[in-house]
Fold this sequence. Notes:
Layout: H1 3-7, H2 15-29, H3 38-54, H4 57-80, H5 85-137, H6 141-144, H7 147-175, H8 198-222, H9 224-230, H10 246-263
Helix pairs in contact: 2-3, 4-5, 5-7, 5-8, 5-10, 7-10
Amino acid sequence: xxxxxxxxxxxxxxxxDIKSAYRKLARKLHPDKHGGDASMAxxxxxxxxxxxxxxxxxxxxxxxxxxxxxxxxxxxASGLDDDNPHVRRWRQMVYERRFxxxxxxxxxxxxxxxxxxxxxxxxxxxxxxxxxxAAIFRPxxxxxxxxxxxxxxxxxxxAGMIHLIGRLREAFQRYTYPENIHDTILEENAAETRPYSxxxxxxxxxxxxxxxxxxxxxxxxxxxxxxxxxxPALYSQTLSPEIALYPPIVVLFVxxxxxxxxxxx
Length: 265
């Protein structure tokens, strides 16, 4: 069974194209839109089965390998696999090239997924750690700076917040909503397959920030005499709203360094 023909996509289609084609067909053929018609149910089962295979890079690569093997077996049975060594060599070269294309596409899909994960993991780790550290040391760079220093800090904070919000929006779009694409397939603007709900994601971020803030505050109080002795001009005895300036700035710089590192990989 040719799953690409069932979904009406090219064998070289991207994962996004496959998901889009499946969504379009599923909305058209879903049994609930046809009064539970048995024939529509069978057609829907076909496209659902095709998507379950092609929607995952690893199962898709295995399927493509089976299709490739079957294609070359049929070619051999049709007379192409004769005693001519040049024909056999040509067939082997074509087979290897197509198989390498399958592996390259799977590796690229996994690389893109890894990059997408890094784009949210690095900012989140930087946000939590910087909140923890800011709650420990409670720096007062803003209040002790001249006007130009305050302008620079506020500008960096605004840029960091814009950047952080952008990263969070990308993460929400990619990783939140119902886990199974079939659950929202009849919605015109249904999201792709994502493992977490928005409520879970928001709760994780909020709880994580409060935990880091609380642990940092307790740690700062415990070592306050050491911190105050080492940086008396910059350390504040109490938590002030000023510490909210620093985590977005740290996230901005961490992501900038990460971007540079990626370019040199």
